[in-house]
Amino acid sequence: MKVPFITKAEVEEIVKTYPTPFHIYDEKGIRENARKMNAAFSWNKGFKEYFAVKATPNPTILKILHEEGCGTDCSSLAELVMSEKCNIKGQDIMFSSNDTPAEEFKKAVELGAIINLDDITHIDFLKETAGIPKTICCRFNPGGIFTLGASGEAVQVMDNPGDAKYGMTEEQIIEAYKRLKELGAEEFGIHSFLASNTVTNEYYPALAAILFKLAVKIKEETGIALSFINLSGGVGIAYKPDQTGNDIMAIGEGVRKKFEEILVPAGMGDVKIFTELGRFMLAPYGHLVTKAIHEKHTYKEYIGVDACAANLMRPAMYGSYHHITVLGKEDAPLDHVYDVTGSLCENNDKFAIDRELPQIDKGDYLVIHDAGAHGFAMGYNYNGRLWSSELLKREDGSVIEIRRAETLEDYFATLDGFWDIQ
Question: How far apart are CA 160 and CA 162, in angstroms?
Fold first, then answer.
């Protein structure tokens, strides 16, 4: 059962200042989860989690995580600048991008970020635009189809590695390290991302084994001993209440076993382990709160809310499940079946389809769970819908605004002279 971190009474107080819809985050939950993450990998002296900024690009969130020892994983100029403004600099930033513009490489070098090169051709591009830094990372793509377990079942993947646009082949990455060493690089790392939102404790250990074995091969063939291995993201969450979520302590222990089995015998026991989680770090600690404003009785039963796919696009884009709690009716029987819809002129603008819920009345507040990552971040302005506010429930229970809602003035700001049109 999923339990919201805010109550009906709290929402009724919040909306006196900040109307629905809004995204709200739980500081207490975020901090506790970050500490659990660090504890799971405490066996590795150099461990660092680089939070994936793209998941929840808000300075307040980045500062909270930085206070808990996390760095940032950036993939654009704006994300680099946001990190800089949060006083996150140097090797507390991992810059992992692809098809990277020159200005972004320049900014990453200026900040002293660890640059993760997506392709072997980017070596010369980086050399010409910003210079080769002393510390560098390369992204690996093993190709094929990534599977787990004796059954050989494929995990939920963003793309099968062989079809993905990211990373280098084994032959390319070995050649890349040789070339980078010739150009003056002194410290090296490797990175790989094979799967998205895995709900299994076996993904990270399986990926670790692949990268650890490759690290040993790189040392044997080039003489380069990698300083760090970045397992990237892919550890997911249980969106459905009947799913069993990941156990980060078990995941950390699984990686440790592979580390001692593969790297330690090869004399590489000092390699640092990095991660770049976004969803696991933030998704459960963010809600989209919305209000029921319409009901419709045609061929189906519909509840219309004041949020739409522009506030949370995952259900519309991927058909993703997000659990819904009707505040004040947590214990009521689930004896109604609704489609919960937004206002966009698109039929896929639905947060739930044929969902069993308690009776919903106009004026009820709905919590859409697990919207703390890839929620607000993927918002857009289609149909002229404005961005909602972001709020933070602090550890003491108070609520503050950490991003104001967009206004019509904001929406039209880039249209020079709009307000002067007669």
Answer: 5
110 phi and psi, to 5 degrees? -60, -40
Q: What are the residues whose beta carbons fall under 8 Å from the beta carbon of 202, sequence distance 6 or more? A: 148, 149, 254
Tens digits of residue pLDDT in 290-347: 999 999 999 999 999 999 999 999 999 999 999 999 999 999 999 999 999 999 999 9
Name residues whose C-beta falls within 8 Å of residue 9's C-beta, 6 or more positions apart in sequence.
none
Confidence (pTM): 0.94
* Residues 6 or more apart in contact with residue 46 via CB below 8 angstroms: 228, 270, 271, 272, 273
Contact 90, 69 (CB under 8 A): no
Distances (CA, A) of 82 to 63, 86, 97, 260, 294: 10, 6, 16, 37, 39
- Number of CB atoms found within 10 A of residue 321's CB: 18
CA distances to 102, 126, 208 from 99, in Å = 10, 12, 26
* Among the listed residues 87, 54, 90, 210, the one whose alpha carbon sits nearest the alpha carbon of residue 147: 210
Number of other CB atoms surrounding residue 265 within 10 Å: 10
